[in-house]
Amino acid sequence: MTEVHIEVNNLTMAYDDFVIQQGLNFKIHKGDIFIVMGGNGCGKSTLLRHLLGLKVPATGDIYYQDINLWKITEAERKVIMRSNGVMYQSGALWSSLTLAENIALPLKEYTDLSDHEINGLAYLKLALVGLVGFEEYYPAEISGGMKKRAGLARALALDPEILFFDEPSAGLDPLSAKLLDDLILRIQESLGTTIVVVTHDLPSLFAIGTDGIFLDTISKTMIAQGAPNELLKHCSQPVVQQFLSRGMNE
Known about the structure:
Elements (H helix, E strand, L loop, with lengths): L3 E12 L2 E12 L3 E6 L5 H8 L7 E6 L2 E2 L5 H8 L2 E4 L11 H12 L4 H14 L15 H12 L6 E5 L7 H18 L2 E5 L3 H7 L2 E6 L4 E5 L2 H7 L3 H8 L5
Parallel strand pairs: 3-8, 3-9, 6-7, 7-8
Antiparallel strand pairs: 1-2, 1-4, 4-5, 9-10
Helix pairs in contact: 3-4, 3-5, 4-5, 6-7
């Protein structure tokens, strides 16, 4: 059986007294492309912040393998978090740095590698996402899809065990979104990375998702778990069916 990478036990997420989601229980296995689904305002991005160790649970526990994320010291938690990579919606690139310099930044901060080694790795990561020849370009000089790929290269800079994506296809045309999906699949296949994706984009979640959960806005809890394609076929929850089949009859 595949090893559990992240386990969430009875998690409640809240801002002060306002509960976002409660009673969340699920496991993310090594090598999964795990999709967090749900309508606007259901708490997808808030869950991502909890999984990244950026927000303390109101109640419940989050385990990285057998380590409870909030029962260890801050220094120990930072070590675990450093083994993650994050790709944000905007790409979150520094506009004043070239693409190679953007990728080099975390390598300079968190490794003892020489400048020569860092530059080589920056070029390698950009090659991995199909940006050979664009190393010395600035973010303003490339397209939106290329910015996303550059953001992914930076997320891969420290060879993360887990990659987190926040709405990776947001703002992309369908062709660019499909190319990004294909890239995510290739990275998972070649590196074996566990991938967690927050998205509401149907073509993307059906194309890449091997497992996932659906967060319901009304009941404020997860009401389904499984691969998106399987949920579409077998889930009896009307709100899940509505979400996954929207636009199919247009």
